[in-house]
Design a protein that fits this description.
- This is C-type lectin domain-containing protein.
- It is a single-pass membrane protein.
- InterPro entries: C-type_lectin-like (IPR001304), C-type_lectin-like/link_sf (IPR016186), C-type_Lectin_Domain_Fam1 (IPR052309), CTDL_fold (IPR016187), NKR-like_CTLD (IPR033992).
- With about 200 residues, this protein is an alpha+beta fold.
- The chain has a domain at about 50-170: Mannose-Binding Protein A, Chain A, CATH 3.10.100.10.
- It has helices at about 20-30, 65-75, 85-95, 190-195, and strands at about 50, 55-65, 80, 105-110, 120, 135, 145-150, 150-155, 160-170.
Length: about 200
C-alpha cells in the first residue's frame, strides 16, 4: 500500500499553497456525525417551552417571590402552573426533580390564611388530585404552593422559588413543514410531525 503523499512537498498544489493539511485531513476522516436533534417538528410551543398535552410550559431558573412569578408569567403571555388533571400533575412533578433542591411556584394560593386554596384564575383546588404538605419550618404564613422533587408544599409566598409558566399550545402551521398537505398520505402526518 502506497501513501498518498510521500512528503510535505507532495501536498503542495501548483501554486505552492498547501492543498490539505494533515490536521484537516485527519479531522475530516475522524469527524463525528452531528448529534441527532430531538426537537419536535410540529411543536405548537415557541423555542425553550416544553409541550405537554394542550399546554406549553417553561421552567425558569430565576428565583422570585410568588407574586413576582405571577407578574413575570403574565409578562410572558402566560400564567403560573395550574394542575387540574392527573396528567398535568405527573408532568409537573417529573420536571421538579433537582439535585440542587430547586423548587418551583405553582399558581395555587390561599388568598386569606386558613381559607380555601384557589388557583390564580379563581378556580377552587380539587384536594383529591394531590395532598399539600404543610411546611411547619416556616413561622410565617404558608399560603402559596411550590413543587420540589415530586412533592407539593405550602410555603411562605415571600420565599424565593423558581417560576413555572404555562400557556395554551398554539396551532401547528402545516405550511411551515415545507410539504404540500395534498401530497401526503394518511400515515405520513405522524412521521412528518415526529422528530427531526
Amino acid at each position: 500500500m502506497q501513501a498518498k503523499y510521500s512528503s510535505t512537498r507532495d501536498m503542495l498544489g501548483d501554486d505552492g499553497d498547501t492543498t490539505m493539511s494533515l490536521h484537516s485531513q485527519a479531522s475530516a476522516t475522524t469527524r463525528r456525525p452531528e448529534p441527532r436533534r430531538t426537537a419536535h417538528r410540529c411543536s405548537p410551543c415557541t423555542e425553550q417551552w416544553k409541550w405537554h398535552g394542550d399546554k406549553c410550559y417553561q421552567f425558569y431558573k430565576d428565583s422570585k417571590s410568588w407574586e413576582d412569578c405571577k407578574y413575570f408569567c403574565l409578562s410572558e403571555n402566560s400564567t403560573m402552573l395550574k394542575i387540574n388533571k392527573q396528567e398535568d400533575l405527573d408532568f409537573a412533578l417529573s420536571q421538579s426533580y433537582s439535585e440542587f433542591f430547586y423548587s418551583y411556584w405553582t399558581g395555587l394560593l390561599r388568598p386569606d390564611s386558613g381559607k380555601a386554596w384557589l388557583w390564580m384564575d379563581g378556580t377552587p383546588f380539587a384536594s383529591e388530585l394531590f395532598h399539600i404538605i404543610i411546611d411547619v419550618t416556616s413561622p410565617r404564613s404558608r399560603d402559596c404552593v411550590a413543587i420540589l422533587n415530586g412533592m407539593i408544599f405550602s410555603k411562605d409566598c415571600q420565599e424565593l422559588k423558581r417560576c413555572v409558566c404555562e400557556r395554551r399550545a398554539g396551532m401547528v402551521k402545516t405550511e411551515s413543514l415545507h410539504f404540500p398537505p395534498e401530497t401526503l398520505g394518511e400515515g405520513d402526518w405522524f412521521s412528518l410531525c415526529n422528530y427531526k
